[in-house]
Design a protein that fits this description.
alpha/beta; 6 strands; 159 residues; globular; four-stranded mixed sheet
């Protein structure tokens, strides 16, 4: 008895999601909307997969509070984000490793650079401890890292 709601402000991404090969499409709903304007319904779990990092820090903080209010007691918020390192030297190393990984996956040099340039200035990245602090300030009682790979981390926050 699961219902999945997807929200994206990109109509192209909504169409891709709608046309994907899901076994039970009747349980899926997709909404073309800005996450900040979407009216959430009470739920047990909310997942943000590399999306909130494109909001301003203020909007992200507001979204954390909104998600906290939406969740049932004991509900969970799973969030994956690109994280910035505490150390500029480690950040440089992690960025180099990420580019090397993309090249090993046969991504085009030009596409890698274009993507980096397109994201410059629109991603608002937290340090791990700062993200955990923001989630705690939003009201979550338990927050822990559940995933880490290079500069990418996932967290589970419990109401």
């Amino acid at each position: 008895n699961v219902r999945v709601v997807g929200i994206d402000q990109s109509l192209e991404m909504i169409e891709i999601a709608k046309n994907s090969n899901y076994k039970t499409k009747e349980q899926l709903q997709f909404h073309h909307n800005k996450i900040q304007e979407f009216k959430f319904e009470t739920c047990d779990i909310c997942i943000s997969y590399y999306t909130l990092q494109f909001l301003t820090f203020q909007d992200k903080s507001t979204m954390f509070k909104k998600i906290f209010q939406t969740l049932n007691k004991g509900g969970g918020f799973i969030i994956y984000e690109k994280i910035i390192s505490e150390s500029s030297e480690i950040e440089r190393i992690l960025n180099t490793l990420l580019v090397e990984f993309k090249l090993e996956q046969n991504q085009d040099h030009k596409e890698i650079i274009e993507k980096q340039l397109s994201l410059k200035g629109i991603m608002n990245l937290h340090k791990s401890d700062d993200l955990i602090n923001e989630l705690t300030m939003a009201g979550f009682s338990h927050v822990d890292r559940i995933f880490k790979s290079n500069s990418f981390e996932g967290f589970l926050a419990i109401k």
